[in-house]
Amino acid sequence: MIGLKGTLNVIDNSGALLVECVNVLKQKVNNGWGGVGDEIVCVVKRARPVSPAAQASSTAVKVRKGDVRRAVIVRTKKAVRRPDGRMIRFDDNAAVLLNNKRDMLGTRIGGVVSADLRMKGWGKIVSIAPKVI
Amino acid sequence: MKVEIDNFSQFRIYPSKGRLFVRGDSKVFRFSTSKNESLFLQRKNPRKISWTVPYRRLHRKGITEEIAKKRSRKTVKHQRGIVGADMASILAKRNQTSQARVAQRTAAIQKAKSEKKEKESKKTKAPRAPTTAPKVSKQAKGGKGR
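The joint structure predicted for all components is written out below.
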């Protein structure tokens, strides 16, 4: 349940560390709560320092503090229900940054992601993730 | 259908029951009830909580029935002969009456005594020859040595 002002850890290597949710992009509702597999608009609150060498040659897009980007939620502390009846919850809220065309910004993911992503159509992220629960 | 076990109390978790918690280090914990979950997150030790299975195992509660069943087994000893003495000779020795043993002993003693006497008589005859011989040689040697 990520809503306005909700903070999430970023678990890819795009350079951001912490993002804050600004808007939850759902079809019917503009506000409301985002769960696993929902796209959100977020502001980068904390980012890894970008060295000047990396600035010049940027094969991977590096994100800076204050950027407004899109992201998809991959882990929530709020429990999610699986079709077999299980409830699964993680220890934190986490997201992976995207660009406007729903492509990932980073190239690697570090950490667990929820398997509910696959059901919502984020198969690419699931395939890159080291562990899916 | 797989029945999981609770990570705190080791109860059985049937499908659609309980919760699954993924910790920050990607370790998965299953809880059958919120009671288990709460105690786990308070970092209680299940070995000290008396209704959990780890505690019962540690304090060996409710196990006496299992042990009682198992005690009915008893190993039966079989008599076997050894390489040096087969079964028949072992039995014969064991079943000897004390009288027979005494008779054996006295017979053995008699035998030993007679043998000893023979030996002594032989000895008294035999060493006389060798004792005279060295005397002669010594005298001879002594004469030469001067």
